[in-house]
Each structure stands twice: as C-alpha cells, then as structure tokens.
C-alpha cells in the first residue's frame, strides 16, 4: 500500500482508496463508503480460536488456528479429471487433514508454513481428524496471536473473514481517531479513548477487551443520540409560538359543566399541565401516554377547547379513516350543542367540528375545507395525510395526533409549516412506551402519563385457546354466542384479509407483518416502517417455525367458518371490516356495529387502535401468536369498555406443549398477555422479547444504523442513556450550538447529516 496515502487516511477516507475498487464496490452495497462507515460495521459475534484440538468432538464445529505442514494437489480416484487439494495442518498438538474440492485458491494460499484459521465440521477418518472443504483465512502477522476472532455480517459475497481483513487494513490506515467526547466526560465515566475502543471491538485480545470497548461505544451512541435530542428540544423552545390561555366562561367551561362524568385524577393533573403549556408562547411538544381506555380523548378535547377559546383552531389527526370518523362522532356527541356553532340550536359560545376524509363527496369536502379556512370550524378532524396535504387553516393553534406514536419530527415540521407560527403539538399513544424508548425515540418531547382507568371499568379476562382443538374452539364460539344472546357484541380479528393479499405497502391499516428472516436488516427496517411499536409478528425463532406453518386464517376464511361451520353462531348478524374497503363502506360498517345492527364484527387490525364500542364484550384473536404483544394488548382494549365485563380469547394453532414437553415460546407470550392487563409491563416484556432492532425498525433502516451497541431492553443501558442525557443537558445548557465542543458538534453534524430525519423520525 502507498505509505503516504495511508498516513493521510482518516475516517472520511474512501474505502475505494484504501481497499481498491473491487472490495469497495461490494461494501458500498451495504452503504459502507468511508473508512468510518466500515469501522462502525461492528462484529455481530466472536469466536474463540482453539489452539488445541484436545477437547474436539466428532461432528462439532471447529475453529482452529493451525500451520500448514504440506499441501498436495491430487486427482480424484474415481474421476481422474477432477482434482483435489489435500493438506495437513497442525495446531501444535494434533494433525488435521483437509480436503478442498476447488483447489486453485487454496493451493495458492496454503503453502507449507502458512498460518491460517480454519473452520468447519470436524470428522475422523482412519483415526485422523478431518475437515472437508473448510473455510479458512490466512493469518497476517498483525493478528498472528489473535485468539478471539470477530464474526461479521457478510456483505454480498464478502465473507466475514474478508471483511475482517479489510477492517485490519482500514484500522492500520486511519491511525488515531479524533475523540469527539469531551475529556472530562471520558474521565468521569471511566471510559477508554475512542481509538482504543474501535480497535478492541474489531481485534480483541481478550474477552475483557470487549467489555472495555463496548462501554465506550455504547456511551458514545447514547451521547450522540441525547445531544441531538436535547439540542432539538432546546432549539424548539426558542421558537415563538402563540399563547392560548383560554378564557373564563368560554367553551371549555361550558363543556366541563356538561360533562357527564367526573375527570379522573390523572385526567385532571395532565389537563392542568397541558393548560399551562398552552398558555405559554413556547410551543408545547408533548407525548401523552395512557393505556387503552384511560380517557385520552377527553383530555385532548379539553386542550382543543382552550385553544378555540383563545381564538385559534385545533386539528385532531387520526391514523385511519375509521378512527377519524369515530372521533368526529364522539366529539360531536360529547360536545352536543357546543359543536353547533352558528346553527339553530347551537350554544352561544359554540364552535363547529368538521371531518375531512378522502372518501367524502366533493361537495361535503368543499364545505369542510371552506369552514376550516375561514376559521368557522374550531375543530378539524381527519387523517393526517389529508390534513397535511390539503387543508388551509385560518389559525392553527394546536395539533393533536392520536394513536400515532410514529408521528415523527418530519411530519411535525410539515404541520408547523402550515401555521404562521409553530402550533402546540400533543401526540397521544395507547401503546405504552418503555422508558428507554421514550428517552431515545421521544427524547425531544415532554411526556405525560395517564395511569389509572376511569372508575367503573369492568375487568377483562383473557384465555389462551388452542385453535387446533375442536372442543376448545366450540367452547369459545359458545361464549361468543351467549354474549350475543345477552345483547352484547363481539370482534373476531384475523391478521390478513384473503387469498390475494397485496404485499405490505397497501396494508398500512391491517395485517401483521411477518418477521423477516434473521439477519435481514433492511427487511426488518422496511417492515418496521409499515408498522408500529406493537405490530410486529413474533421473534426470529418463531418466524422460522412460521415459515413451515400453514398460513394464518384469513378474514374471508374466518367469515366462511363462522357462517357455514359454526352452528353456535347460527342467526348471528356478521359484519366484515378491513382496510381495503372504501372509506364510506368502512364507515358504514362501523356505524352499524356501533348501532348494534351487527353482532359479530370479523375484522383485521383496522380496529386495533381507538375503536370504542362499549357494548362489545368479547374479543377473539385468531392466530394470536402472530401478533406482537403490544398489539394484542391493544386489541384486547377494544372490549370491557362499558359496564359489562370483557372476555378476550387468544387462539393459536401452536401446540400448547412442544415435542420436548416444554411450553413453546409462542404460547408463553400469549400467556404473558393473558397474565396481566398492565400495558406498561407488557411493553417492557415486548421490548425484551423483540429487541430494539424491531422496536426502532423504521429509524434504523437508514444508511447507518445509529443504535448498534445500545440494548434498550437492558436496564444498565437505560441508566446509561439517562446519564448521557444529563451530560448532554450540561453541555448544551449555555451552549446550544456546542461552540465550546467543536469536535462533538462536527461529529453530531456528520452522524445526523443525511439521515437525521429518518433517525429521529419515530415521534
Ligand atoms: P383512550 O385513552 O383509549 O383513547 P377514550 O378517550 O376513548 O380512551 O375513553 C374511553 C371511554 O371512557 C370513552 O367512552 C370515554 O367517554 C370514557 N371516559 C373518559 N374519561 C372518563 C371518566 N373520567 N369517567 C368515565 N368515563 C370516561
Ligand atoms: Mg383513543
């Protein structure tokens, strides 16, 4: 290699200049373009190279560092035109015979005296150890004594070992790395310098080196992340918004006076926080978490009314048309005459509530748009796509985003652009968010939590049933039938619609997403993007089992089953709801279900969030093992919302006991859901089972994954993130631009550069 070039190399150097075009082109396919990119391609595992074959057993996978004693190319006895390379190597104590069918490469590499790592399945022949066409890597002097070998995710046709070799070249070339973390912090946390950490993670000499390296790299990740978030928050706090203090004797007071129930303590406290935020000109930026049924809508509505009382408008954005329409109905119902501004029978202080959906008639839409633009409508409800793209508002003061924790920074920014001054923003989610995720993904927002449920809620009992058992299923349908006979209603949920399901993309509203095979990073990201925190299928091990399992029951199959093969449900009025119905039809089905004209609604997960029909008491989830834990919790939250107790059945074709007599993981997960109704506990459990890769899916699919080392489910890392957050706050307190820490500022700019949006996107 060109020495001079090497001396000048740094993290920004191109891999092409360091490794040559061929290798660089392959690495570029994984988005690895610069030396810095490659250095962050951390090993996914490590192998201990055994120097001794003493403990070797037949059939075991062997990784051994050995020296070539002899190597001969010889014809195959049965087919003299074919040739083999036969080599004998030794690890110092034992000789091992190797055979390679393609002899050209190995014959060139494995000359006597060469030291290499060999890996393959060990066997014996005539009392001698053998490896047939093993993988091997010739050992350079620099790693001659390396006994812990990194294993990299391969990139295209570059194997782990080839990447390891490339890594060695790059590590040698770049020399010292600049340390972006202020010395004081490095010292205080007892960390090693960054160069050492990067070296040790790729070329550890002892297992303890990995601990040292990881501590540092984890901290770095946490610090970049938190510095970005805190910076964003401090910058936003300097925005000039509009104070919306409300007024005495206005809509809000009239609303409170007419409210048929007392607010819960939590609703009252959070309500006061929001009122306080809205009264300030600093734009509010809050995440409201509240378990299913905790009464977030009332809290949001009260905030909206305060804004209307201050002369502004509020937009309520729902993820689906079904939810938007339901919100409009319930907002109108609970506001009564207060929503009939300017109309006969409307109250004096009343405003108007308009709904905007993609499927409304052109006429109705024009009217709604004009009321929004003129300011006559104080409250505009719709799906966010629609409102973001088409609506002009006279004076947007507050945006409430319901059930959409994925509502990201980008979307928030787009909305801001709609108003002359940034509006207040309230994001609501019923999927409880583990603390670590709240700190990382939502770190730029204040949070508020509604923990208690309104009084008088009925308990929900959850049963896990075996879908393959006729008896269990008959009993389950019997419970549904009895509920219907008693005047109640039920949901039957399936993961997919029918035979010609479109690939995801159209399926934003329904459908679980099958977990991609392990190690398929891009796929995990893509799936995550379609999906929310809870909507992933099962973890990897189940996914593989899933591939062999028959398809999950489709909506149409389930409907068929209920109509033709379930005598218990004879005469029961069934309805079908899924994301591919036209908006009007969806709405009509929901209305009929809400009005009690449909007894059993067979649906996809369109009903997952927010749907509120208090008379529904039974929830049946078919193939429940294919849903995420949080998603099941959401689905279960659709029942038990009224005075009647709820029952939830989680049905699964997985056998309750595996071949070995153990309870399969899939079944355990369902039992975890059945075992508690505490959404926060389930969210933590979910994170543990699925890992942060899935939870952060969308934000991690960018060119460079930002969270590689941190384990959001690990309590120690959660602490670390909290510490890094405090550090970031200290650094930025009087220096938002990081003027005193130019290296950190540069690093931040570099890492967040092209994918800051993707990275921070999940809001
Ligand atoms: P979620 O937090 O899941 O969005 P909702 O806002 O839909 O919950 O509220 C669920 C139901 O509880 C609604 O029917 C709502 O009217 C009712 N509700 C809200 N607050 C209270 C309260 N303080 N007391 C009694 N019922 C309430
Ligand atoms: Mg809700």
UniProtKB/TrEMBL annotation:
CDD domains: DEXHc_RecG (cd17992), RecG_wedge_OBF (cd04488). GO terms for biological process: DNA repair. Residues 499-547 are annotated as: Disordered. Residues 529-688 form the Helicase C-terminal domain. One of its GO terms (molecular function) is DNA helicase activity. Residues 533-542 have a biased composition (Basic and acidic residues). It comes from the Bacteria. PROSITE patterns: HELICASE_ATP_BIND_1, HELICASE_CTER. Residues 277-450 form the Helicase ATP-binding domain. InterPro entries: DEAD/DEAH_box_helicase_dom, Helicase_ATP-bd, Helicase_C-like, NA-bd_OB-fold, P-loop_NTPase, RecG/Mfd, RecG_dom3_C, RecG_wedge. Residues 513-528 have a biased composition (Low complexity). Signal peptide: none annotated. Keywords: ATP-binding, DNA damage, DNA repair, DNA-binding, Helicase, Hydrolase, Nucleotide-binding. PANTHER family: ATP-DEPENDENT DNA HELICASE HOMOLOG RECG, CHLOROPLASTIC (PTHR47964:SF1). This is Probable DNA 3'-5' helicase RecG. It comes from Arsenicicoccus cauae.
């Amino acid at each position: 290699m060109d020495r001079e070039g090497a001396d000048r190399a740094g993290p920004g150097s191109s891999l092409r200049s360091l490794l040559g075009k061929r290798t660089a082109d392959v690495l570029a396919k994984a988005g690895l373009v610069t030396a810095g990119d490659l250095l962050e391609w951390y090993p996914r595992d490590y192998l201990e190279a055994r120097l001794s074959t003493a403990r070797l057993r037949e059939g075991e996978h062997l990784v051994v560092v050995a020296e070539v004693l002899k190597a001969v190319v010889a014809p195959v006895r049965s087919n003299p035109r074919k040739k083999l390379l036969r080599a004998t190597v030794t690890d110092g104590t034992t000789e091992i015979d190797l055979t390679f069918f393609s002899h050209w490469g190995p014959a060139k590499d494995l000359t006597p005296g060469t030291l290499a790592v060999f890996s393959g399945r060990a066997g014996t022949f005539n009392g001698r150890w053998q490896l047939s066409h093993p993988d091997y890597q010739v050992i350079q002097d620099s790693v001659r004594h390396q006994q812990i070998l990194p294993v990299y995710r391969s990139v295209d046709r570059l194997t782990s070992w080839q990447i390891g070799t490339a890594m060695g070249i790059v590590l040698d070339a770049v020399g010292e790395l600049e340390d972006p973390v202020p010395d004081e912090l490095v010292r205080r946390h007892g960390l090693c310098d960054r160069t050492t950490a990067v070296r040790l993670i790729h070329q550890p000499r002892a297992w303890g080196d990995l601990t040292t390296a990881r501590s540092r790299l984890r901290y770095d990740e946490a610090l970049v992340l938190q510095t970005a978030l805190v910076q964003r928050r401090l910058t936003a706090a300097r925005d000039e918004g509009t104070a919306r203090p409300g007024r005495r004797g206005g809509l809000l007071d009239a609303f409170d006076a007419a409210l048929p129930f007392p607010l819960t303590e939590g609703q009252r406290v959070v309500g006061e926080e929001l009122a306080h935020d809205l009264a300030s000109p600093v734009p509010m930026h809050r995440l409201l978490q509240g378990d299913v049924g905790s009464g977030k809508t009332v809290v949001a509505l009260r905030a909206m009314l305060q804004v209307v009382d201050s002369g502004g408008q509020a937009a309520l954005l729902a993820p689906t048309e079904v939810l938007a329409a339901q919100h409009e109905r319930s907002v109108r119902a609970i506001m009564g005459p207060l929503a009939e501004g300017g109309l006969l029978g409307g109250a004096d202080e009343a405003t108007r509530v308009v709904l905007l959906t993609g499927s409304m008639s052109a006429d109705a839409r024009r009217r709604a748009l004009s009321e929004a633009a003129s300011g006559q409508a104080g409250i505009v409800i719709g799906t966010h796509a629609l409102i973001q793209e088409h609506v002009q508002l006279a004076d947007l003061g507050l945006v409430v985003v319901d059930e959409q924790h994925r509502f990201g920074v980008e979307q928030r920014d787009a909305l801001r652009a709609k108003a002359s001054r940034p509006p207040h923003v309230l994001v609501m989610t019923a999927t409880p968010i583990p603390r670590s995720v709240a700190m990382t993904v939502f770190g730029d927002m204040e949070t508020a939590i509604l923990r208690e449920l309104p009084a008088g809620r009925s308990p929900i009992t959850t049963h896990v049933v075996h879908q393959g058992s006729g008896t269990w299923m008959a009993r389950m349908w019997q419970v549904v039938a009895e509920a219907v006979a008693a005047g109640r209603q039920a949901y039957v949920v399936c993961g997919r619609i029918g035979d010609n399901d479109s690939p995801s993309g159209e399926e934003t509203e329904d459908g679980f997403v099958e977990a991609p095979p392990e190690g398929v990073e891009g796929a995990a990201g893509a799936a995550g993007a379609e999906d929310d925190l809870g909507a992933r299928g099962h973890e990897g091990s189940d996914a593989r089992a899933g591939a062999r399992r028959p398809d999950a029951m489709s909506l149409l199959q389930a409907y068929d089953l209920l109509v033709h093969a379930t005598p218990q449900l004879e005469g029961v009025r069934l309805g079908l709801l899924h994301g591919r119905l036209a908006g009007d039809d969806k709405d009509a089905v929901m209305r009929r279900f809400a009005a009690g004209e449909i007894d059993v609604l067979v649906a996809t997960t369109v009903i997952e969030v927010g749907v509120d029909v208090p008379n529904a008491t039974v929830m049946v989830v078919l193939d429940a093992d294919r849903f995420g834990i949080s998603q099941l919790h959401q689905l279960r939250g659709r029942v038990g919302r009224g005075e009647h107790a709820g029952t939830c059945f989680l049905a699964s074709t997985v056998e309750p006991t595996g071949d070995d007599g153990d309870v399969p993981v899939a079944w355990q997960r369902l039992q975890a859901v059945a075992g508690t109704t505490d959404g926060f506990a389930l969210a933590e459990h979910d994170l543990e089972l699925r890992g942060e890769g899935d939870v952060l899916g969308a934000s991690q699919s960018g060119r460079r994954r930002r969270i590689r080392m941190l384990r959001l489910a690990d309590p120690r890392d959660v602490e670390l993130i909290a510490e890094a957050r405090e550090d970031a706050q200290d650094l930025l307190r009087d220096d938002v631009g990081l003027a005193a820490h130019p290296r950190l500022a540069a690093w931040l700019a570099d890492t967040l550069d092209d994918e800051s949006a993707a990275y921070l996107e999940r809001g």
